[in-house]
């Protein structure tokens, strides 16, 4: 799989910066990263809501553990320090909250 930052050079530039030495700078960088995470999580939830409408059985009833495991394994290649165990916990929360949202607010058709 190609390096995801190949297609998103500004993200590559962001993460190749040295981790700052000061508390204020670290927090500023965390705020910048968190804003990106928020935008991406929101977008991911929107796509997931669409998928629930496209699958024969959507929502929690159509949960697909094999697909979720593949997602975690693939992500672990790009987040080796977090590793599969932590990523599984993170992504389970992301996926469950997205499915929850999709039930509350289905994707616009
Ligand atoms: C989005 C899907 O539905 C569910 C949600 C997933 C996700 O948010 O990545 C993955 C698998 C399914 O449990 C899917 O089947 O692709």
TrEMBL record:
Database matches in Gene3D superfamilies: Chorismate mutase
GO molecular function: chorismate mutase activity
SUPFAM superfamilies from the UniProt entry: Chorismate mutase II
Domain of life from the UniProt record: Bacteria
PROSITE patterns the UniProt entry points to: CHORISMATE_MUT_2
SMART domains noted in UniProt: CM_2
Pfam families to which the protein is assigned, alphabetical: CM_2 (PF01817)
Gene Ontology BP term (one): chorismate metabolic process
Domain Chorismate mutase per the UniProt entry, residue ranges: 17-106
Name of the featured protein: Chorismate mutase
């Amino acid at each position: 799989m190609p390096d995801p930052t190949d297609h998103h050079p500004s993200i590559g530039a962001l993460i190749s910066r040295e981790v700052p030495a000061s508390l204020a700078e670290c927090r500023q960088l965390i705020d910048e990263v968190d804003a990106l995470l928020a935008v991406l999580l929101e977008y991911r939830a929107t796509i997931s809501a669409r998928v629930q409408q496209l699958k024969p059985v959507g929502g929690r009833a159509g949960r697909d553990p094999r697909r979720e495991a593949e997602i975690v394994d693939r992500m672990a290649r790009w987040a080796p320090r977090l590793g599969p165990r932590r990523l599984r916990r993170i992504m389970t929360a992301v996926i469950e909250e997205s499915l929850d949202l999709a039930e509350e607010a289905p994707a616009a058709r």
